[in-house]
Amino acid sequence: MGVKAARKRKLAEQEESSDSDESVELPPPTRSSDDPIPRKSKWINKQRVLVFAARGISFRDRHLMKDLRNFMPHSRDENKFDKKEKLFAVNEVCEMKNCNKAVLLEGRLKRDLYMWLANVPSGPSAKFLVENIYTTAEMKLTGNCLRHSRPLLSFNPTFDTEPHYKILKEILIQIFGVPNGHPKSQPFIDHVLTFSIFDDRIWFRNYQILSEDGALAEIGPRFVLNPIKIFAGSFGGATLWENPNYVSPGAHRKLLNSAAASKYMSRVTQKTHNEVDRPEKTYALNELDDIFAGDAFETAQEIVEKQSKEENEALDKESRQPPKKKAKKVKKPKIDKEISVSAVSNGKSPNGKSPKGKSPKVTGKQGKKIKNHKVAAIKLKKAKAKAKAAQA
């Protein structure tokens, strides 16, 4: 009985206190911070993209690969792929990484970059030549966005015109589109990825959404995809489509070099043609032919002025030239008659030289040697003559 009475008392006290405190507002029994954290929506579209490169890419291509990973939270990285292995080995790498899409960058000669976009393992896959590469660090643009935020994908209307563009559009959507509810993604949409077709190429741009009015600011990177082939399988298989207008970069460089080399040849041929076609005698023009074309008095004045100018110029030139110096006459030295006579008697000219037509007399040892040589030559001639006579 005592327990029941105590309960009745407590209930009566509570009723009295509630009646007295009706005017006072009490805080709620639970706070908002105590509420359980709302769970994210289920991650249904579980797309995982393997973004990696083969050996032999340049530094710019490597920075482009990093930029692609930065705005793709559903991407995974891998070490460089060995060129010696076949491309079918990429499917095994994707299975090991639990990825169903692949982006492979393949470089050649440190110049050209090729990009593979593939759906692993069933396909299809597409091969592109990447042109006009500009990375975010290189451009230094004003745009900025939250990292790992979900982008809007914008496509040109020409993607819906032809069947091969429709295939490429679906591949790009599945690779670059961030899945809704991805654990690493942010619940914001603050940038746009645009894919537009111009000149049979796909132009890629990344813009920040500044306001709801549609104001945009470019973030980067930017590049151009030149499609080469579309395959039915992953990194191979039957070719579904091939670009008929594609020219390899090596052939393009070869054409440029040949065009530069042909400039010299064209210049040389043009010179030869000009020399051949040049007339031997041109038309002889006379200044007096146009005297009566206009006013005769004015033309006469012009002719007189020209003549006066020419005369003045000739006088100025003569005045500027220094006067010619007169050459000094050199006096001949006088020779005494006695000296000249004595020199001639000795067989010499007055200047000390022997007169013309006469050889000077040789005396002493030299004279004896000359005589001996002459005698020996005469004896040899006689001996030869006797030998010839004996033979005859």
From TrEMBL:
Record keyword Cell wall biogenesis/degradation present: no
Keywords: Nucleus, Ribosome biogenesis
Ranges of residues in domain Brix: 47-236
Compositional bias (Acidic residues): 14-24
Cellular compartment(s): Nucleus, Nucleolus
Purpose: Required for biogenesis of the 60S ribosomal subunit.
Composition bias, Basic and acidic residues: 310-321
Low complexity: compositionally biased ranges: 345-354
An annotated Gene Ontology molecular function: rRNA binding
Region span, Disordered: 1-39, 310-374
One of the record's GO cellular component terms: nucleolus
GO biological process: one example: rRNA processing
Bias kind Basic residues: ranges: 1-10, 322-332
One Pfam family recorded for the sequence: Brix
Family, as annotated: Belongs to the BRX1 family.
Name the UniProt record assigns to this protein: Ribosome biogenesis protein BRX1 homolog
